[in-house]
Design a protein that fits this description.
By secondary structure, the chain is an all-alpha fold. It has one domain. It contains 2 helices and no strands. The longest helix has 20 residues. The relative contact order is 0.24.
Amino acid sequence: MDISFKRNIGSIDRAVRVILGIILLYIAIFQPLTISSGWMYAAGIVGIFMMIEGSAGY
């Protein structure tokens, strides 16, 4: 049984995801006093996943 994944994210979309991931991580790490802790954690988690998706391209 051979399972192969096909890349379905274009290069522009990958770049946008990585950039938005970096921005969300920056907000989560360096702006903790301006946003509530729940939003801070959510921004960090979403930022991490966006960077992973952008770098992997799947």
